[in-house]
Amino acid sequence: MACQKNIMNFFKPVAVKRPLSNIVDNDTNKKPKVENVNETLEADKCKEVNKNSPFFSKYIQAKIKLTSKRFPALHPNIGESWFEALSSEFGKPYFKKLSEFLAKERASNTVYPPEHQVWTWTHTCHISKVKVVILGQDPYHNPRQAHGTKSVFQCFCWGTTSSKEFATATCEANCNVMHLLNMYKELERDIPGFQTPRHGNLIGWARQGVLLLNACLTVRAHNANSHKDQGWENLTDAVVKYISDNSRNVVFLLWGSYAQKKAASVDKKKHHLLMSTHPSPLSAHRGFLGCGHFSRCNELLKEKGKKPIDWGDLPEE
């Protein structure tokens, strides 16, 4: 009969199983099963967080902590804005080598400044607020000179901070302190009303946006320039370039040939470069004394609508 059904009509056909190789080859859009939970957690830590998020600061602090564990040359107390600006540098081979070098140096020698003070220069001023840059070579290599906490930047003599230490060093004709005394002498000549303080603490300048930066951020005790060519110069070159590329109308005070070479990458169309000899006892009388850089710096800042530096704002603490 035409309407008669075969018994096989009452059963569903059995699905044909695909070979495992076909499943693997064809299902490329499916996410693979995660075998290692720790890998997923690490990936989550690296996800970008919007800067407007209330969690952004915690996110940056977590990145700083992770990075400083990998590279001891970076201390966890680096300023957040500086870490953001320089984060690409910390993964480069030179920074890994620098970290290894510093670990060996600290294990067998006294190194200035102490680890927790190396990045003090990033604490006081947001990187976008820098108005003036003064470049130096390396921290001083004797006790209480490359101090870092009260003195902030270890650029020329930012270390003899107390009145007693400063007076003692001056009486001993300490060459390092003489650099700073020559700066004070020029300030007295150039800035009406400036009075030389009885200490070497320049944090008052830093709070106003004056960055005092050495090419090298560490030094072995009693061995000047001993950490030269170990990697710090790459990092501080990146600082100078970042400020040049991302700011405008910054005044660079370049005293001596070393500082002038260090600023070779600065865009002269966007920024102001004032050059003279170094304020050391050997060269200060050949151009630094009488250069008028402090007053000229303030004139340039005011011309661009920026607040001038109060060079006399130098609290001891």
Automatic annotation (TrEMBL):
SUPFAM superfamilies: Uracil-DNA glycosylase-like (SSF52141). The active site is at residue 138. It comes from the Eukaryota. It is found in: Mitochondrion; Nucleus. The keyword Lyase does not apply. Keywords: DNA damage, DNA repair, Hydrolase, Mitochondrion, Nucleus. Gene3D superfamilies: Uracil-DNA glycosylase-like domain. It holds the Pfam family UDG. It is an enzyme of class 3 (hydrolase). Its EC number is 3.2.2.27. InterPro entries: UDG_fam1, Ura-DNA_Glyclase_AS, Uracil-DNA_glycosylase-like, Uracil-DNA_glycosylase-like_sf. The keyword Zinc-finger does not apply. Excises uracil residues from the DNA which can arise as a result of misincorporation of dUMP residues by DNA polymerase or due to deamination of cytosine. Belongs to the uracil-DNA glycosylase (UDG) superfamily. UNG family. This is Uracil-DNA glycosylase.
